[in-house]
Amino acid sequence: SKWLNITTRTYRNYKTKDVSLKDNTKEQIVLLISLYKHGLDVFMTKEDFEHWLTTPNILLDNKAPMDFLDTVSGLKFIDNRLTAMEFGENV
């Protein structure tokens, strides 16, 4: 719910009731899914990708990559970091 900028209660309602998602929430969900697939391509295993997502990174101001996932620009930034890693850059 934090990454989607919604309350836990709203998140539960989305999961259990026939409630229509807001457009910005839909966009963030699509970007999160895309980022996750990209991360799996880069790291090869779910465990390695999730470890990278949750570990503070000196190149990201000692923040974990997951700290950036609550905005569209943050999602794109982390996706760009994954692309940089594919081309040999340290991230």
Structural features, described:
By secondary structure, the chain is an all-alpha fold. The protein has helices at 8-16, 23-43, 46-54, 72-86. 59% of the residues lie in helices and 0% in strands. Helix 2 (23-43) runs parallel beside helix 4. The model has no long low-confidence stretch (mean pLDDT 89).
Index terms:
single chain, 91 residues, mainly alpha
Topology overview:
Blueprint: H1 8-16, H2 23-43, H3 46-54, H4 72-86
Helix pairs in contact: 2-4
Distance between the termini: 26 Å
The percent of residues in helical segments reads: 55-70%
The arrangement of helices and strands along the chain is HHHH
* Percentage of residues in strands: under 5%
Main sheet characteristics: none
Q: Count up the helices.
A: 4
Low-confidence stretches: none
Which structural class matches the secondary elements?
mainly alpha
Can you summarize this structure?
With about 90 residues, the protein is mainly alpha-helical. The protein contains four helices and no strands. The mean pLDDT is about 90.
